């Protein structure tokens, strides 16, 4: 939806510019024509149509603004806690969910709906990897990334990160699969089962938040995703304003 929103916004903007050009030239033509010229009526019709088209672009622009994501300071543990009951239902009774959510790690800056999507996509993948049941562990911790570690990771700066770990006891992955999982449309699931968009969406969201995602997995030994999200600096102040 976001992509559609920004696309609509971009097109509406360019389209609006072209409409102004049409309007200007129509006005020039009207100025040059004598009042009695029958062509004037045609040109006035063009002006009315341009006017309607402009209103339409305004609607598109409003839509795109509504679609733009609004990152806010938020407590990731609380988001994970709130989505717990939904995950329980999605995963079914053969999968046990263990939550180790530290309540006071500080805040990240993200859009709540996007964080829910991250958790949901990872949980659904875990479910698919555990067709005979198993255990899904969701954990939040605080990590201080030092200069040396940050230098090794493209998207990381030194400082505090809130780390979300999602670990399953499922089928795991070999290196060949692991290397491709964040590619859009990459899936090992059958037609109608996988879209290959889950993890590329997750990676996109994490990148937008200035974070990083890492995966640890071996065939038969399960999978762990670790998502590093920079801790929001104005944590204490923001916590007072935003209860989430
Ligand atoms: N928890 C997991 N355990 C094992 N394999 C996984 C896991 N998560 C993702 N994968 C692999 O990564 C691929 C891509 O995942 P994703 O982008 O969510 O697409 P999809 O789930 O539609 O296939 C999956 O097809 C699967 O091979
Ligand atoms: Mg998926």
Write out key terms for the chains shown:
alpha+beta; 5-stranded mixed β-sheet; two-stranded antiparallel sheet; binds adenosine-5'-diphosphate; binds magnesium ion
- Give the fraction of residues assigned to helices: 40-55%
The strand order across the widest sheet is: 2-4-5-7-6
The largest pleated sheet is described as: 5 strands, mixed
Total strands: the figure is 7
| β-strand amount | 15-25%
- Catalogue the ligands: adenosine-5'-diphosphate, magnesium ion
Can you give a write-up of this model?
Helices cover 50% and strands 20% of the residues. Residues 235-239 have low confidence and may be disordered. By secondary structure, it is an alpha+beta fold. Strand 6 and strand 7 (223-230) form a beta hairpin. The radius of gyration is 25 Å and the shape is elongated. Helix 1 (2-32) packs antiparallel against helix 2, helix 3 packs parallel to helix 4 and helix 4 runs antiparallel to helix 7 (198-208). It contains 8 helices and 7 strands. The strands form 2 sheets. Strands 2-4-5-7-6 form a 5-stranded mixed sheet. A two-stranded antiparallel ribbon has the order 1-3. Bound molecules: adenosine-5'-diphosphate (ADP) and magnesium ion. Adenosine-5'-diphosphate binds next to helix 4 and helix 7.
């Amino acid at each position: 939806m976001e992509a559609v929103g920004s696309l609509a916004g971009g097109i509406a903007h360019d389209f609006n510019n072209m409409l102004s050009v049409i309007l200007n030239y129509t006005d020039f033509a009207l100025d040059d024509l004598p009042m009695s010229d029958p062509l004037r009526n045609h040109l006035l019709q063009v002006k009315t149509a341009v006017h309607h088209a402009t209103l339409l672009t305004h609607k598109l622009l409003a839509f795109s603004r509504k679609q733009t994501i609004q990152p806010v300071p938020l407590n990731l543990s609380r988001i994970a806690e709130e989505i717990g009951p939904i995950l329980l239902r999605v995963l079914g009774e053969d999968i046990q969910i263990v939550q180790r959510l530290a309540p006071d790690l500080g805040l990240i800056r993200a859009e709540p709906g996007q964080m829910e999507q991250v958790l949901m996509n990872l949980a659904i993948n875990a479910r698919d990897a555990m067709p005979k049941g198993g255990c899904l562990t969701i954990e939040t911790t605080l990590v201080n990334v030092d200069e040396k570690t940050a230098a090794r990771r493209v998207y990381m700066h030194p400082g505090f990160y809130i780390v979300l770990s999602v670990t399953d006891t499922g089928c795991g992955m070999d290196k060949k699969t692991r290397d491709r999982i964040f590619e859009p449309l990459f899936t090992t699931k059958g037609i109608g089962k996988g879209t290959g968009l889950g993890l590329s969406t997750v990676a996109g969201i994490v990148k937008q938040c200035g974070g990083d995602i890492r995966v640890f997995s071996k065939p038969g030994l399960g999978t762990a995703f670790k998502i590093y999200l920079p801790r929001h600096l104005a944590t204490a102040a923001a916590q007072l304003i935003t209860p989430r």
